[in-house]
Inverse folding.
């Protein structure tokens, strides 16, 4: 019998059977293929975001159900959809509705629009899908439906934790997001984190997320006090050139260059640093 991913041939010689097998394509191959399909604008960020190495480290593979926190315009979503394939599901997760009022840039009109985010993002993500891509779904932290509980193999927080921590005191948003993360995951499910990383000797008040940065010790503490265990980490997204300290914010760096204005020299300095120093951590859900 010949199948798309596996060819087996059995040769009988007396009482001896020889089995020759061709293994299915690895998840690394499927990630590579998905990356090749992305537009040049997205590919330009690969050297900083390292999506292949990051998704391989998180062991993201076809057929999985993956929650992507704060998927935004879909930079990672458009890679994940073909990687997960037709038997997989990508679930977007947005901030809790009440959290948006804490952002100064959010107008009443934009906050109102966020009320329909689950529907609008699902429609948008469906438009990104091609034949053979994953199905899509969505929820908002603090409003996880019963039908989604215990369904996910992985949850990804890619540069999505700093504001949760920043506003933790105003609504327990980080804690509640971790509660939903625990609930949505299957037993033994994993959480992949990529987050702008502050050096451990920096002031806690500065590294609270309001400048984009968090300390690794803080992230590990939050996850391990909410039902998860750190099982691995990698330096793949670290950048020693980013020595951010008080007075710095992550958006000073490319691609945003906030604060550079028309100052060409400052922009060149930020370009020389590159994108932010980022921790890359892997957690596992444990039984409470």
């Amino acid at each position: 019998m010949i199948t798309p991913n596996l060819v087996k041939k059995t040769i009988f010689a007396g009482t001896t059977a020889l089995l020759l097998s061709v293994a299915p394509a690895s998840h690394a191959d499927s990630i590579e293929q998905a990356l090749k399909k992305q537009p040049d604008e997205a590919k330009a960020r690969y050297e900083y975001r390292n999506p292949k190495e990051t998704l391989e480290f998180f062991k993201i593979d076809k057929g999985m159900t993956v929650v992507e926190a704060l998927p935004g315009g879909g930079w990672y979503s458009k890679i994940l959809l073909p990687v997960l394939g037709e038997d997989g599901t990508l679930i977007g997760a947005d901030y809790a509705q009440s959290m948006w009022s804490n952002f100064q840039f959010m107008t009443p009109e934009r906050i109102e629009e966020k009320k329909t985010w689950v529907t609008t993002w699902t429609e948008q993500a469906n438009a990104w899908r091609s034949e053979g891509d994953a199905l899509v779904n969505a929820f908002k932290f603090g409003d996880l439906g019963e039908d989604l509980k215990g369904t996910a193999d992985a949850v990804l927080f890619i540069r999505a934790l700093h504001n949760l921590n920043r506003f933790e005191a105003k609504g327990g948003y980080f804690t509640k997001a971790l509660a939903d993360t625990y609930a949505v995951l299957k037993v033994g499910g994993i959480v992949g984190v990529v987050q702008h990383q502050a050096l451990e000797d920096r002031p806690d008040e500065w590294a609270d997320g309001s400048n984009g940065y968090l300390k690794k010790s803080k992230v590990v503490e939050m996850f391990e006090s909410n039902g998860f265990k750190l099982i691995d980490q990698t330096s793949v997204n670290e950048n020693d050139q980013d020595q951010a300290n008080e007075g710095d914010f992550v958006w000073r760096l490319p691609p945003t260059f906030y604060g550079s204005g028309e100052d060409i020299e400052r922009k060149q300095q930020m370009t020389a640093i590159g994108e932010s120093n980022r921790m890359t951590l892997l957690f596992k859900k444990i039984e409470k």
In short: The first strand starts at residue 7 and ends at 13. Residues 254 and 271 are 6 Å apart (CA to CA).
